Amino acid sequence: MSIIKSILLFVLAAVAEIGGAWLVWQAVREGRAWWWAGIGVIALGLYGFVATLQPEANFGRILAAYGGVFVAGSLAWGIVFDGFRPDRWDYTGAFICLMGVAVIMFAPRGSAV
Fold it and tell me: Is residue 113 assigned to a domain?
């Protein structure tokens, strides 16, 4: 259950951070209304709180793993909201990042190396 909770929290964090950054981008770079940026800032703040809900207690581990989720999530966001078409290298890089997330978060621990 802890792995499922962790994955769901990573997805929620990605939606909050990537969505928030996209909203700010839309306001600043695409000329949308200023309140898009305001909602984006709120979403970015929400991301910070979501990360604290992870079952893992180590800040560095959570943020390092989330970096891989952010890479893959950003590509997915671009596909859905901006019509971005990744190439095979984008997909390969995202896959490598997600494998890194799995190792960092879910590898068996028990002894220091």
Answer: no
